[in-house]
């Protein structure tokens, strides 16, 4: 069940955290002023995301699928022909899924907190990635200059 909750949490967070903040990790230079980690660990945002995800999952469970099931019964599984017209997703859901909205609301803050801590760790690594990129750029330039010294233009 945790994997379903985590997936729903990730989708809810993606909908609630502004994409401009997600596109700019914290650090120096072009990555300055990111607040992804801060936003994901904000209890107020976590509460809103939990409520929103619980509402969305309730709406999904209440989705009327009877007509679709009946249509599928006409060209597939004959048992679906007898599905009531007003059947909802929750009518097909097992007992675990019926508690999904409550479980999502309970687990969402923990999942968002973990995503925030992960985002913060990644943001903290950006200077190291930048250093590594500079080092790689210098190494490639050195190798290009070395190769130019030993190559014969007539070889091309």
What does this 3D model show about the protein?
The chain is mainly α and 156 residues long. α1 (2-16) packs across α4, α1 (2-16) crosses α8 and α4 (43-61) crosses α8 (100-150). The chain has one domain. It contains eight helices and no strands. Residues 1-23 form the signal peptide.
Instruction: Tell the overall outline.
Output: elongated
Beta-strand portion reads under 5%
User: Which bin fits the share of residues in helices?
Assistant: over 70%
Structural class: mainly alpha
Number of helices: 8
Q: Quote the distance from N terminus to C terminus.
A: 61 Å
| Count of individual beta strands | 0
What's the average pLDDT?
Answer: 80
Domain count: the total is 1
Order of helices and strands: HHHHHHHH
Poorly predicted runs of 5 or more residues:
18-28
User: Tell me about the biggest sheet?
Assistant: none
* Gyration radius, in Å: 26 Å
Summarize this structure briefly.
The protein has 8 helices and no strands. The protein is mostly helical. The radius of gyration is 26 Å and the shape is elongated.
List the topology elements.
Blueprint: H1 2-16, H2 19-22, H3 36-40, H4 43-61, H5 66-75, H6 89-92, H7 95-98, H8 100-150
Helix pairs in contact: 1-4, 1-8, 4-8
